[in-house]
Amino acid sequence: MSTLKNVAIVGATGAVGAEMIRCLEQRQFPVGQLTLLASARSAGKKLKFKGEDITIQELTPDSFQGIDIALFSAGGGISRDFAPHAVKAGAVVVDNSSYFRQDPNTPLVVPEINAADVKNHQGIIANPNCTTAISLMALYPLHQAFGVKRIFASSYQAVSGTGAQAIEELANQSREWASQNRAWDAAKLDSKPHVYPHQIAFNAIPQVDSFLDSGYTKEEMKMENEGRKIMHLDKFRASVTCVRIPVFRAHSIAISAEFEKPVTVEAAREVLSKAPGLDILDDPANKVYPLALDIAGRDNCAVGRLRMDCALDNGLAFWVVGDQLLKGAALNAVQIAECLL
Asked: How far apart, in whole angstroms, are the C-alpha atoms of residue 204 and residue 2?
């Protein structure tokens, strides 16, 4: 392939698609021609890239002629139906949906961890789940040093992980409460939610994705299943509770990890200080720790609240925050595309 790459973004009008456009521009990806693809209702609209208006085209099976790299972020059904057309046309697909993640022939990649897996692709490379990617940015360097056995984790996930309608729902519910001058303890609204099964404003919903027979949700099992594949660690175990909270952007995860080797806070901090794409914000005495409000919009994830876990042997507890639209989605996808250059 030539130095400049013709790039297509499938789902260009979505929250992740918009961030993909920004990441390509900000990271000076060598784009020859950028093709923006979306549904028929968005066709004809324009989005800017490097100061120029680019007209959105309707996604069809014939959309990928001349495309080198296709970044998909339009849901599993679209990936299932259209990624094979992109590959047949000669493009390499970087897919943000869950559809191909567990396919044994599809690499599942976080470039800071397993960039070498990219070379094994057969036309499609999968982007991990956002919570998994953010968690592993801190967990994997610790695994390299101490050998992770299992984790117990709880995620606190922003509504933008669900999409634009969820962002709007939280905003509308917050405005509704404020406009009615309600008391602080009269937070349950009269209007019915549309995106989530319960009101998200002023609430915490312990369900992300649908439930499995085990009682876990699909989202909760992704940490174990995808973590095993990314870290090449078949025995990795993860017990996770995923919670949706009324935060617009950036996911937070509390992790207690048990390691094969003894670990100390000082040794862990030394390891994490050298980890690419990760900042340490860990000064509890001065109330310094990663916050969703601060990490939103940042490429790097952040880790803090490092402490020995008092319930696990060789255990360490920590708090990781990352922008799920960036490292959890768009940025990671563009970094994978950079591995193809």
From this structure: 49
